Amino acid sequence: MMETKYAILTEKHIDRKIIKEAGKILQKGGLVAFPTETVYGLGGDALQRESSRKIYAAKGRPSDNPLIVHICRWKAVKKIAGKIPQEAEKLAENFWPGPLTMILEKSEAVPLETTGGLQTVAVRMPENKIALALIAAAGGYVAAPSANLSGKPSPTLAEHVREDLDGKIDMILDGGAVGIGLESTIVDLTENSPVILRPGYITKEMLETVLGMEVAVDAALVDSNAKQAPKAPGMKYRHYAPRGELTIVTGEAAHVTDAICRLSRKKRLEGEKVGVICTDETKMFYEADCVVSAGEKTDTEEIARHLYAILRQFDSVGITCIYSEAFSGRGIGQAVMNRLLKAAGHHVVEV
Ligand code: AMP
Ligand code: MG
User: Is 123 in the pocket of ligand 1 (CB under 6 A)?
Assistant: First the structure.
């Protein structure tokens, strides 16, 4: 165990002294957790093998699951990517800084430890100003997966990072609640045409509009029985998992509420501690040990922001059985349903 330093920062008035100290820790090969607009990241110097090894160890993450390299200026791509396709420039112009990760061929500068043994590298320029300042102070290349223990929901508050990694990393920068709440969209630009490996805030339609061409979605994301493994190694693990067994209930709204009420009653009689994830519109219908609304039914951005904190809340009060309504799959709703399905191990009941 080590002592984990803790500092509170705001994007509006960034404390340069703290950023300098955190940047030094990264340069010396240490680990610093920091806020981004998607989720909290666990940062290490992307160009030092030893830092990446430490990240895997702290998270308990399988070392074949590559890390995303975070940069703070476009020029940095040239050092870590072997080839930069035109699509990458177009996407960067439109979506960086922002919640989009691009997969490119890697250059010699990036150690295989950072890319989980792959010859490709994942790159993103985050929008959060604390993140950008930290990356600059660290020398420009920060490998950062989500700052949770492997298998737990990604952290959307510094408190979640503390729960998982206190005593295992050098420092936590607390920049408050994140804005989006789900991990970045990942798009692979190393094939003949772009492929989405992980859905996120930046949707397929947004990418297609900018690129003027069709963007495919990795088959393994669409079909849980697909023979091919997902191309983003991380997507094959049962990620984002709460301790309680999660079931998603889909169907006509009234039937869904009825079914969840019936199922919760039955499980509670069997001695289970039941949690329900619902919307503002349906919250009043439920009776369970913990009933939480993720937001207004049509506000998928609000639902995205709250999802992981709700799963963690259920863990902290010992919920053993969870029922969730299915949410709209439009816009970021697609990413919400992708994460929820993974958290549920694709356990869905249709009513
Ligand atoms: P996290 O930073 O925790 O959101 O995890 C990073 C995600 O990016 C994981 O799902 C990885 O599998 C994926 N990823 C990172 N690098 C690559 C790469 N070179 N090719 C494909 N997927 C990648
Ligand atoms: Mg993660």
Answer: no
- For ligand 1, whether the C-beta of 52 sits within 6 Å is no
Q: Using CA positions, which residue lies closest to atom 11 of ligand 1?
A: 234
Taking CA atoms, 290 is separated from 17, 35, 154, 270, 327, in Å, by 42, 28, 21, 16, 19
The rounded Å distance from CA 260 to ligand 1 centre is 35
Tokens 């990446």 found at: 52
> From CA 189, how far away is CA 191, in angstroms rounded?
6
| Tens-place pLDDT, residues 210-252 | 999 999 999 888 766 666 777 887 776 666 778 999 999 999 9
8 Å CB contact between 17 and 5: no
State the Cα–Cα distance between residues 99 and 186, nearest whole angstrom.
9
Distance of CA 50 to the CA centre of its chain: 23
Tell me the pairing of strands 274-278 and 32-34: unpaired
**Ligand 1 centroid, distance to 47 Cα (angstroms):** 16
- Phi, then psi, of 55 in degrees rounded to 5: -60, -45
Q: Please count the other Cβ atoms lying within 10 Å of the Cβ belonging to residue 9.
A: 22
Q: Is the peptide bond before 145 cis (omega within 30 degrees of 0)?
A: no
Element (H, E) at 101: strand 100-105
Ligand 1 atom closest to Cα of 183? 4
Output the DSSP codes for 230-249: PSSGGGGS--S--SSEEEEE
Could you give the CA distance from residue 128 to residue 173 in angstroms, rounded to a whole number?
A: 12
Ligand 1 pocket test target in 67, 107, 185, 342 with most atoms within 8 Å of CB: 67
Ligand closest in space to the Cα of 233: 1
| CA 145 – CA 80 distance, rounded (Å) | 17
For ligand 1, atom 1: residue with the closest CA: 145
pLDDT digits (tens, 9 = 90+) for 67-122: 999 999 999 999 999 999 999 999 999 999 999 999 999 999 999 999 999 999 99
Contacts of 316 (CB under 8 A, 6+ apart): none
Q: Which uninterrupted H or E stretch holds 322?
A: strand 321-325
